[in-house]
Amino acid sequence: MTDKITNWTRADDAMVENAIRRGASRRELLKMLLAGGAAVAAGSVVLGRATQAVAATPVSGGNFKAAGWSSSTADTLDPAKASLSTDYVRCCSLYNRLTFLDKDGKTQMELAESFDSKDAKTWTVKLRKGVTFHDGKDLTADDVVFSLKRHLDKAVGSKVAKIAAQMTGFKAVDKSTVEITLADPNADLPTILALHHFMIVADGTTDFSKGNGTGAFVLQTFEPGVRSVVTKNKNYWKSGKPYLDSFEFIAITDDSARVNALISGDINFAASINPRSMKLLASQQGFELSKTTSGNYTDLNIRLDMDPGSKTDFVAGMKYLVNREQIVKSALRGLGEIGNDQPVSPANIFHNADLKPKAFDPDKAKFHFQKAGLLGQSIPVVASDAATSSIDMAVIIQAAGADIGMKLDVQRVPSDGYWDNYWLKAPVHFGNINPRPTPDILFSLLYASNAPWNESQYKSEKFDKLLVEARGLLDQAKRKEIYGVMQTMIAEEAGTIIPAYISNVDALSSKVKGLEANPLGGMMGYAMAEYLWLEA
């Protein structure tokens, strides 16, 4: 065969890859290949393979600059108080957690070497040795105990105080062993501690302005509401990481301005852009889009304890009236995955893929509305820009209702005050829920009978019992089975309609490499700085 390569070795592959890194032209590379015994056709294959290898091989060096969409003068470097994406990004660059979620939603160890329990109530955590804080102090069990106990102190104002409240006992068994005791069994503890707020800080820390953590970067500059600059931690415990020399993070609230900053080269990365900006980038060369569907959703909530939701046939009719495909295509401009009326998204390992979404069926919807005695009556539906794409969704559902004689009065209200005045209160209204890492957190927050955010006032003793049972099981297969049943119960019985899981889109220079999706959100679950590199 004319494209056969003779005497070609891995060393020759490495030689070509090194030449690419040095900036050799294609002509020079082909000459090199021909000299090594490769025909033109085979040379192209080798060249393509080498180019891919170079692109996938991390490169050290470079200064990375990214822009988020939100900032505040209340921006903080205290992980317990983190509330905006900007806080999460900065904390992820400066600190580490005991565990983290990988791209597949599986819990991996980070500062913890192992997490063990026989009863899901008492947990033994073994810490990695040889980990140091930026100030040179060794990581010990005392740091972990201090970091976790902070969340129980009301004076701290932790954003995860309610989640942390289940931890009732902390003990430093020795320098590298921590024992955590829970009020009740919870097999999700290792996953819960992967949340951004549970970053580990040094024992006794009260001043967080220095960002003293064990993370991949060391703080240089922090201006709340403006920017932060961090530089490579040369003593980082993860070998070879980070790849970047420095990372600067700013906020540009206007979407168009954020994208224009990317196009002009002022930044390398523009977080969370809208569909209009996607069209602008499509006409430019040298840029890419990263899509993450991690569980954020906008839902239509029908309170079951108020009219018209107290009539079960009205709720059933609304579920058949929602055209999920059209909502993804039109309201979300294709940036979403069809939902099946329950909150555990496909990004979660416990997602029930066998539960099919309700089909759009106006005839069935009309039947149920007639049975409820509501066909032709005007039903208020409250929507707002505060709940992502809810107004567009409402208009689509309203039009479908009009076709069968169902009058849905879409009441558009201001964003300001929406969450205080309408969410959880109006008989029919929209909500917007951010990703959570476990079904237990989602169900406890949104669907248990005593849930603080029970959007449809769903009450079920069976559901509550299953929630407690699944929480304490260490058998993952059994938990998945129970969570599957609970997702079906929500889809069939609750008054929440979840038509789609919304995708987040980040825009970046083609020179930025290593970006992957993560179930905790865009920007690799806000931890991108540690893993990205800039192509030479």
Number of helical segments with 4 or more residues: 18
Helicity, as a percent range: 25-40%
Mean pLDDT: 91
**Ends: how far apart?**
36 Å
How are the strands of the largest sheet arranged?
A: 8-9-10-1-11-20-12
Rg, rounded, reads 26 Å
Structural class: alpha+beta
User: Total strand count, please?
Assistant: 22
Low-confidence stretches: 1-6
Beta-strand content bin:
15-25%
Please summarize the sheet with the most strands.
Answer: 7 strands, mixed
Shape field: globular
What do you see in this structure?
The chain has 536 residues and is of the alpha+beta class. The protein contains 18 helices and 22 strands. A hairpin with a 2-residue loop joins strand 6 and strand 7 (177-182). The longest helix is centred in the C-terminal third of the chain and has 18 residues, at 476-493. Residues 1-6 have low confidence and may be disordered.
